[in-house]
Specification:
With about 450 residues, this protein is α+β, with helices and mostly antiparallel strands. It folds into three domains: about 160 residues, no CATH class; about 30 residues; about 160 residues, Histidine kinase-like ATPase, C-terminal domain (Heat Shock Protein 90, 2-Layer Sandwich). The strands form three sheets. Strands 2-1-5-4-3 form a five-stranded mixed sheet. Helix 1 packs antiparallel against helix 4 and helix 5 runs antiparallel to helix 6. The longest helix is centred in the middle third of the chain and has 56 residues. The two termini are about 50 Å apart.
Length: about 450
């Protein structure tokens, strides 16, 4: 609590009010001392008037008058004559003389502070002007111990009252600060925390409502910042999605164009003059398209469109894929074999299931080709009560350590030099769109096997 804004206001208010009360206390204690001495002079004057009325007072009555006045003797000057009106034995010599008639405020404050910090009992002479112009001056002799005790008592009461006022004022300010400042600030902080946790949630955007001008300006500035940041995040997300979409489309389109490029190589061998004349232009166009696709593979990730699920004969899809791959292989030493049952029907998007298998087959073929050895890529499939399973196995060298550590991570999971690693990432994402998955069953010198799982359920429990 002490580290909070309202707690510090509470402490500072108490300290400042106490400081103000101390500054008030100094002249107050001086005023109290002056009033105390003037009261003694007034009592002494009253006692002396009794003597003027009857100058034959008994000694006991005179002593009682002096005791009631709190002085040892009274001197009254009337008509330029100084008269000792009342007197009693003085226990010790007079230490100080104070003339209240022309004392300045600074002198009164100094004398009060000196008396307050001076212990012991002294005898002092006090001179003042008689009330109601009953003479030129009145002078009394008195002890300082009762004066100091009265000053201390007054000072303690003043300090206690100051402390009560300070605490009460601080509590009022504490409540006011919490209501006017702390509560609105907490509202702003709450909006900031909710927005930080979910920038896309519109409920985290602040609605300015503070009545304090400065807080209202802060809320409006935060609103503008959140609005601009939300727009920037949405724009960034769109660009990221667009980048990844371009990268994935380019990856698959590059493979398709590579197949088309091999077809054009066959066309160039045609004996037809027109075909031979147009084939180089076709080859150049396809080559430029392949280069353009390869240049876009550095773009970011994006979400694939939701698959259009239909019942698809998997054998037909795989046969088309095998035929296209065999054409692209040419003199390649890699053989692609399909062991998919002819009657196996799966629920999938035909285009996306083709891309899933194509990416896995293409990765396996490229891994074997990179070794310069002969090899085989086998596509098999089966179903059980819960899912359809498609397996792509090869006799290649196995995945390197770096590829295994970054499996399905775009641009990091490439198994060959120069590979983008998008093939596995695309296959995994397309499988997730079907509610399924792609997993690595095994890899090593004897070969690698990837399994594609397509669940039969509709995802409900």
């Amino acid at each position: 609590m002490l580290n909070s804004l309202s707690g510090r206001f509470l402490i500072l208010t108490t300290v400042f009010v106490m400081l103000a009360e101390i500054l008030i206390f100094v002249p107050s204690i001086a005023r109290f001392r002056e009033d105390y001495l003037l009261a003694r002079l007034e009592r002494a004057q009253i006692a002396s008037l009794a003597l003027l009325a009857d100058d034959m007072l008994e000694t006991a009555l005179e002593a009682e008058l002096l005791e009631n006045a709190g002085v040892f003797n009274v001197v009254l000057r009337r008509n330029e004559m100084r008269q000792l009106m009342l007197s009693s034995p003085i226990p010790q010599p007079i230490d100080e003389t104070y003339d209240l008639r022309m004392a300045s405020p600074f002198v009164l404050i100094k004398d009060a502070l000196v008396r307050l910090v001076t212990p012991g009992n002294q005898v002092v002479r006090v001179i003042g002007a008689p009330v109601r112009e009953a003479g030129l001056l009145i002078e009394v002799t008195m002890e300082t111990a009762p004066l100091r005790m009265a000053m201390l008592d007054y000072g303690v009461r003043i300090l206690v009252l100051s402390a009560v006022i300070s605490v009460f004022t601080a509590l009022l300010l504490f409540v006011a600060v919490r209501a006017i400042l702390v509560k609105p600030i907490k509202v702003v902080v709450g909006y900031m925390q909710r927005y930080a946790a979910a920038p896309g949630d519109a409920r985290g955007i602040i609605h300015p409502s503070a009545g304090v001008t400065e807080l209202r300006e802060a809320e409006e500035a935060l609103l503008q910042l959140q609005t601009e940041l939300t727009q920037a995040l949405k724009q960034k997300e769109r660009l990221a999605q667009l980048g990844e979409a371009v990268a994935k489309v380019s990856h698959d389109l590059r493979n398709i164009l590579t197949s088309a490029q091999l077809f054009t190589d066959r066309i160039e061998m045609s004996e037809d003059p027109l075909v031979r004349r147009l084939a180089p232009k076709l080859v150049n166009s396809i080559t430029r398209a392949v280069s353009l696709c390869e240049g876009t593979l550095a773009f970011g990730r994006a979400e694939e469109p939701a698959p259009t699920l239909t019942m698809v004969n998997l054998c037909e899809v795989v046969d088309d894929l095998v035929e296209a791959e065999r054409v692209t292989l040419g003199d390649d030493k890699v053989d692609i074999v399909s062991e998919v049952p002819t009657d196996l029907v799966v629920r999938a998007d035909p285009e996306q299931i083709y891309r899933i298998v194509m990416n896995l087959v293409r990765n396996a073929r490229q891994a074997i080709t990179a070794t310069g050895n002969v090899g085989t890529v086998t596509i098999s499939a089966f179903e059980d009560g819960d899912a359809w399973w498609i397996s792509i196995s090869d006799t290649g060298p196995g995945l390197p350590k770096r590829a295994r550590e970054n499996l399905f991570t775009p641009f990091q999971g490439g198994a060959r030099k120069g590979g983008s690693g998008l093939g596995l990432a695309i296959a995994a994402e397309l499988s997730r769109g079907h509610g399924g998955s792609v997993s690595l069953r095994q890899t090593g010198p004897e070969g690698t096997i990837f399994d594609v799982c397509l669940p039969k359920g509709d995802g409900t429990i």
